[in-house]
Amino acid sequence: MQQASLDTAPGRFPPAAAGTELLRLDDITKRFPGVLALDGVGFHLRRGEVHALCGENGAGKSTLMKIISGQYQPDEGSITYKGEVRRFASSLDAERAGIAIIHQELNLVPHLSVAENIFLAREPKRGWPSKCFVDRAALRRQAQACLDRLGVDIRPEAPVKSLSVAQCQMVEIAKALSLNAEIVIMDEPTSSLTESETALLFQVIRELKDQGVGIVYISHRLDEMALIVDRVTVLRDGRYVDTRNFADTCIDEIVALMVGRSLDDKFPERTSVPTSDVLMEVRGLTHRGVFHDVGFELRRGEILGFAGLMGAGRTEVARAIFGADPPDAGTIRLGGREITVKTPRDAIAHGIAYLSEDRKSHGLAVKMSVTQNLTLANMGAVSNALGFIDRKAEEQAAWRYIQMLSIRTPSPHQVARLLSGGNQQKIVIAKWLFRQSRILFFDEPTRGIDVGAKFAIYQLLDRLAAEGIGVVLISSELPEILGLTDRVAVFHEGRITAVLNTRETSQEDIMHFASGHGRPAAPGAETP
Amino acid sequence: MSNPTTKLLETAASPRQPTIDGPQAMNGRVMNDRRKDLIQKFAALAGLLVLVAVFSMTSDAFLSVGNGMTIALQVTSIAYLGIAATCVIITGGIDLSVGSVLALAGVVAALAVKAGAPVPLGMGLGILVGAFCGLLNGLCVTRLKLPPFIATLGMMMVARGVALQITGARAVSGLGESFGELGNGAMFRIVRIGEDGFPDVVFPGIPYPVVLMVVIAIAVAVMLSRTTLGRHIYAVGSNAEAARLSGVNVAGVTLFTYVLSGTLAGLTGCVLMSRLVTAQPNEGVMYELDAIASAVIGGTSLIGGVGTISGTAIGAFVIGILRNGLNMNGVSSFTQQIIIGLVILLTVWIDQIRNRR
To answer: Is B14 close to A349, i.e. CB distance below 8 A?
Structure first.
């Protein structure tokens, strides 16, 4: 693919602007064994601005973020914070200086209360001798004050485990405020929030802006950025590309800067042609209290979408068919023959695979190497009858898939934990392709993955369908469902409320069925 | 069935991203990783050699073929149990019952022989009892979903109790010379009749327990690193849910490691009792901790997913050589405990630093 005409050469960093500057990073370089993670990168944050950091997987966003928050120390370059050159020895050091980070995976203790979490290890003390008791009243009061400052309605006494993800995020922000943070780094804060929760988060971010806090915002959801982001800095392959005012640019331009080419279409042309040939037929699938009487058929050459709100039962149905959580009732037919699936082993033996939305805890053996993860579901193909592994064959297979899927890893023996999210997802996909699965359930395959890698995965889904593999795409992103699928089953509270032809439907139609409002005026619905 | 994905992926792969440079270019880095691994192993081995050097200097009798065999013989019990413990710990489990199980197995073997069974049959029975205890442990963990610590703690008490009960807490002796053959015999023993008419030992031979240790260590090491079962053991310890969703029989693999642990404990019991030609129901107290210590010194992670047999072997020898060398230097057994305790803390700390980067 040729380079776009856009200025994609690693850019020069603009000179300092006086007065409002809060943080300035110059010529930051960071090396890891075998990888140059950052190469002379600059970054510049003003008071009261939301500054987005964009780039593909492996572009160096997380490394830069960890350098700002003191987790890593740069090999070269300088950090100027509030006009002073600083070196943060640890994240605690940076935190004391007023730099707080809110990780994608939240760091809260579930069994403690909101107030206790906000002031963890910094509890207000009282009593004698030497103030050894927690001042519970002060703790509650101060926590309440932080929460009030955010304008969120969370009780300080509530245990964190009873909160939603969005509420936990608010608690993290409250914690940052209680540290008098002047810089708050947010890593993918909206990745697991609903739309209304996101709106609330943005409200809070605007509040912080008004108070002069500088916010470093990392997200793959570029469309949301328009609502809050002031400036955006783009990184590519560990290099600084450009910084732009968000108002002077557009999403397409940012994406082009990120990938080094222009992306005309977010979704690839569909090449597979749906047939009437039924690969899998599911009838009456029920798991009491979770989903009821779910039925659908998957045809050769099509991509079937599972749409619906979170908790509507999409993931649960896929897991039931895969044998991860066996259903109470229902039949599954493959090519007309009924099969029994009690465990994932049974499903895998029938060529069914499920790619979990939660890669880290359900998809990858993170301590094992790329190779070992790739072959885990299909050890039989690389071992003899006695179970002895043919290491050469295994390594060759790994190389094949690493190159086919462009998995970025310094070596096939690299530990999976050390790879970026997109590359980990590719390993999981490669694992099932190596298993020669015939039916693949993709559960939110592009969550937390950048635009370029998303496109590659979309292309992959289409090609799989074209090769006669049954593809089910579970997605919460309606554009993805509309852009990619041939038919879509809409879930609402554990039931399929409609199976729609994607071509004849719209976002509104799907939302209608997903929220349980029944059939809208528009045609195109085929009731199951 | 041919794999259709192979063909299609070539077109789907995005040519834009620079990927890794291909096998040739990669060799350098891969070799580097391997070399690093070797250096780490070598560091542990070097520590072992330093111990040998120090003890050789402080004691004349330390560095001799005879003492070498003695150490090897003393290390065998820790090694058998350590090898088993390594497998269990890699899955993220733990087996606290091996010390008691070995006592029960040895006692059962002795009682069977006493009752007239041939020695191999009696010992076979002992090993079976060990395997059965391991099976119960494994079922408690996989079926009843008990935490391994609790399941094996229970078995530790039960097995010890049964061993004491069936013997009336008395040692079983008078087992005959053949009972001692496994523990005291040796291969390649060379004895010449001297001119004075007395036998003269040219080479003490390799004791059978040492031969067994080498065979078991190699077999389990091959199992862990070269077979699908071994791979599955690591996968279960690394991420049990991911392993299950990849079609690994998690319960089966876990069960296997506990049965292996019980079986090796049974074998340890038979070898130990055979060495003494007496079965002691009080034998093997705290051996489980030696086993865990040898695994941990050898780099096995108690969280699971990490560990090797070669590491555990080094760990077992570190403990064995420390005991032997300190004994020869007249260090009291109390001081020995202190030193071994500190060594455990030190090695694990070094391991932590190494992995922190």
So the answer is: no
Query: CA-to-CA distance for A478 and A457, rounded, in angstroms?
Result: 16
pLDDT per residue as tens digits for the range A100-117: 998 877 788 888 999 999
pLDDT tens digits along B82-137: 999 999 999 999 999 999 999 999 999 999 999 999 999 999 999 999 999 999 99
Nearest CA in chain A to B303: A367
Interface of B with A in 31-60 (CB under 8 A): 33
What distance in Å separates the CA atoms of residue A464 and residue B4, rounded to the nearest whole number?
Answer: 9
B24 CB near a chain A CB, below 8 Å? no
ipTM of the complex: 0.77
Q: Indicate yes or no: CB of A463 within 8 angstroms of CB of B244.
A: no
State whether residue A33 is helix, strand or coil: coil
Minimum Cα–Cα distance from B306: chain A residue: A367
Mapping DSSP to helix (H, G, I), strand (E, B) and coil, where does residue A336 land?
coil
CB B321 within 8 A of CB B51: yes
CA angle, A162 as apex, A157 and A165 as ends, to 5°? 110
Phi, psi angles (nearest 5°) of residue A294: -85, 130
Q: Does residue A454 come out as left (phi exceeding 0), alpha (psi in the -120 to 50 range) or beta?
A: alpha
Asked if the C-beta of B29 comes within 8 angstroms of chain A's C-beta atoms, the answer is yes
Residue pair B291/B84 in contact by the 8 Å Cβ criterion? yes
Here the tokens at position A49 are 């601005």
* Closest among A405, A344, A350 to A374, alpha carbons compared: A405
Q: Which residues of A touch B89 (CB under 8 A)?
A: none
